[in-house]
Amino acid sequence: MTTEAVEHPARRYDPHRRDRIIDACLDVIADVGVAGVSHRRVAEAADVPLGSMTYHFSGMSELLHEAFNRFANAFSDRFAVRMAAAADRDAAVAAITEAVEGDILSDQRELVLTQELYTLAARDASYRDITNAWMGRSRAALERHFDPATARMLDALIEGLTLHRALDTESQGGHVVTTAIARLVTTDSDTDTDTDTAGETP
């Protein structure tokens, strides 16, 4: 009796499959929101077998963590590079203005992903490590040019101005951003001066 060898299909070499799944997860979130994410949808978007989802991730929570971490890190890296390029405080103010008016939440995808992350973190505290790290990195970038208290206020101002620009049905105009940042930074400078001269005798 002749035994015929059984041919098995060669296993597909796909070293970047895990990364592709994470990127696909972000695309699915941007399209249907966190509530609409499923293993099947992400697998289809990444063009991988459904079994790859459970092979690479313990569950949906791990996948969402990985995806939002990637998004937040890329976002904060971009801001950090911009702030690091500023040679002085005036250049830093200009860089912040350009960031708000230009590349922060520059497209609908980033806006949706940001809001989905905030909503998820507000509902589930286990995701707040991502938002806390994001805010920490933003403040660290700002602290290259401003004191910690001012950096914290600027971080909040930047976020508020950016969301208003993205969501407002009427254009707020570039002068709103410039004026808001200038007022905060000017107030900060005045406070520093008052503090420095508080102990001087008139």
From TrEMBL:
Top-rank taxon of the source lineage equals Bacteria
Please state every residue range assigned to the domain named HTH tetR-type.
15-75
- Tell me which Pfam families the record gives: TetR_C_31 (PF17940), TetR_N (PF00440)
- Xref: InterPro entries: Homeodomain-like_sf, HTH_TetR, Tet_transcr_reg_TetR-rel_C_sf, TetR_C_31
Q: Which keywords label this protein?
A: DNA-binding, Transcription, Transcription regulation
- According to the entry, DNA is bound by residues in 38-57
Name recorded for this polypeptide: TetR family transcriptional regulator
Q: Which organism is it from?
A: Microlunatus aurantiacus
Show the taxonomic lineage: Bacteria, Bacillati, Actinomycetota, Actinomycetes, Propionibacteriales
